[in-house]
Specification:
By secondary structure, the protein is mainly beta. 7% of the residues lie in helices and 53% in strands. It is built from 7 helices and 36 strands. The strands form 7 sheets. Strands 21, 22, 23, 24, 25, 26, 27, 28, 32, 33 and 36 form an 11-stranded antiparallel beta sheet that branches. The longest helix has 8 residues. The radius of gyration is 25 Å and the shape is globular.
Length: 549
């Protein structure tokens, strides 16, 4: 399993002088580089520092790196499955050998290799916990860099346990790069927490549609609140909201519901789950979809699984090192492009291409703030070789978007001498919502449905009361319709927005959406669709970037 930071960026918009979260960006945009749902699916989002924990499954890429010392001693291939450019650099004998170590309280940190270029700074490290702690998971109160002026440099990290070597292998990655050719930096991790699996049985009844609350009061967890929602195709969505007595658990623990059948085997989700989304009031929200029949079979039992702290080694493990760009400069170049992309809204141009031995970045600029490039999949065609990439929003630069491509199996000369084109596929457009109201009448605990249309797309609305809250679901039978992103009702001229009760992923095939209006006490209501999305799955955009020599 990999451990890593996931980053969440909330954008704020204002309507009628009332601030509210842009839940479309909040729920539908989950960062490509780090936040992964189980099954290895990756989802784009704006980066921001955070230490949420998630899990990736199904990682397997073969790579034997040769020339650098660290690669000779460890196989980094699993760890670098989503960092193919670093794998390629290792194969090519690149990377600055560091091999510095610090030992404290029987725990040894070694920084083996560094990569610093015009796109990022990347460290490969190992952490030897000592024989008494072997095999446990690990988390930190802090991990990052400091420059020579003492300024903190945040980033992303991931690690995995190497049972044969008895160490954790990890990487730390940041977008920070040195202004000049070299930089003196400090790499440090503080307060190392060794964690193991915690299990608590819960008496969840899958046949009870009411909200069920289970006090835990153990290992830093206060309680878990479960709600179930019937889905299509005989599925049921289980939403769990966790509260903690130890606030640090919120950033370190991966909490999930496990269903065990009468043969003591785990019941698997039928769709990729999501874990650790922050709720408006601070809870840790997760959503898992199961087959209804499986959960309701006789003998099925339920438990709460999480990471609990077994031991904490206090202190700071730090190393000072001098990083140099010199080695990577031979494979680094920038090209100004300034290519207008009329198919993308917001006055978008491909401003610049930055090529390094580990990564290619296309810098897109927009005349309008927070312009979303409306494609889900990105590739770079380098003389017929395709590099897969993803979209990143640049923190603090609302008029800039980056497309990043790992340099898998290529070198910078390939891009210097061959034709290069950007390929973008599966277009998803956002549209302003319909101003025609949807009239909900006779609101009660009974599920009621009505139909309407938005821009010619048929929409089925289902609404009902549950725990003094009004739930409003929308669904379209037309797969071209991407879903209603949020609903609202008017109180005078003020808009009251529903809270998304279902974590949607932009561009997926499920156009069902659910909002909740808490503490609702009316029997009739006019609601409106704030905005919605549409799919063009076969749409392909190809933009030539440079001609070959």
């Amino acid at each position: 399993m990999e451990r890593f930071e996931d980053n969440l960026k909330n954008q704020m918009k204002t309507a009628n002088n009332v601030s509210y979260p842009d839940f479309d960006r909040m729920w539908s945009s989950i960062q490509h580089n780090e936040l992964k749902v189980a099954g290895g699916e990756s989802i784009p989002l704006r980066p921001r520092k955070r230490k949420r924990i998630a899990i990736i499954t199904g990682i397997s890429v073969a790579l034997m790196a040769t020339p650098v010392y660290a690669a000779l001693n460890y196989d980094w291939s699993n760890l670098l499955s989503y960092r193919a450019g670093i794998q390629t650099a290792l194969e090519q004998g690149l990377g600055q050998t560091i091999e510095q170590s610090v030992t404290k309280n029987g725990i040894t940190l070694i920084v083996h290799t560094a990569f610093i270029d015009e796109n990022r700074t990347f460290l490969l490290y190992s952490l030897d916990p000592g024989s008494s702690r072997a095999g446990e998971q690990v988390a930190f109160d802090h991990i990052g860099l400091k420059d020579k002026k003492g300024h903190s440099i945040e980033g992303r990290y991931s690690h995995q346990w190497n049972a044969d070597a008895g160490v954790f292998q990890g990487y730390f990655e940041t977008d920070w790069v040195a202004d000049g050719q070299s930089a003196d930096i400090e790499f440090a991790m503080g307060n190392i927490h060794f964690t193991g699996d915690g299990i608590q049985s819960i008496n969840y009844d899958p046949n009870d549609e009411n909200t069920q609350v289970f006090p835990i009061q153990k290992d830093g967890i206060d309680s878990v609140t479960l709600q179930s929602f019937e889905q299509t195709e005989g599925n049921v969505l289980i939403q769990s909201a966790i509260t903690f007595t130890d606030p640090e658990m919120n950033s370190r623990s991966w909490v999930r519901i496990q269903a065990i059948d009468d043969k003591k085997e785990m019941i698997k989700e039928v769709k990729p789950p999501t874990f650790g989304t922050p709720a408006a009031s601070g809870e840790y929200l997760s959503q898992q979809v199961f087959k209804s029949d499986s959960l309701r079979s006789e003998g099925t039992r339920f438990q709460l699984a999480y990471d609990r702290t077994l031991e904490t080694a206090e202190g700071t493990w730090s190393l000072n090192m001098a990083l140099s760009k010199t080695q990577m400069d031979n494979g680094t170049f920038k090209e100004a492009l300034n290519i207008p992309v009329d198919q993308v809204p917001g006055g978008t141009k491909i401003h610049e291409m930055i090529v390094t031995p580990t990564q290619v970045r296309l810098i897109l600029t927009h005349e309008e703030k927070y312009t979303r490039v409306p494609y889900m999949n990105y590739q770079l065609d380098v003389g017929g070789t395709l590099l897969d990439g993803g979209m990143w929003y640049v923190q603090g630069q609302p008029r800039t978007t980056e497309l990043r491509f790992e340099m898998a199996g290529l070198n910078a000369a390939s891009l210097a001498n061959q034709p290069v084109s950007l390929i973008a596929k599966h277009r998803v457009d956002e549209h302003a919502g319909d101003k025609n109201p949807i009239r909900l009448t006779g609101i009660s605990a009974e599920h009621q449905s009505l139909t309407s249309s938005i821009a010619g797309y048929p929409i089925t609305w289902t609404y009902y009361m549950k725990d003094n809250n009004l739930y409003v679901e929308s669904f379209s039978s037309d797969p071209t319709f991407g879903g209603v992103n949020q609903t609202y009702y008017l109180d005078g001229e003020d808009r009251n927005y529903g809270m998304p009760a279902m974590i949607g992923l932009l561009g997926d095939d499920n156009n069902k959406h659910m909002d909740v209006y808490e503490n609702f006490d009316k029997t009739e209501l006019n609601i409106y669709a704030w905005n919605y999305t549409t799919h063009k799955r076969d749409d392909v955009l190809r933009v030539p970037l440079k001609a070959g020599k």
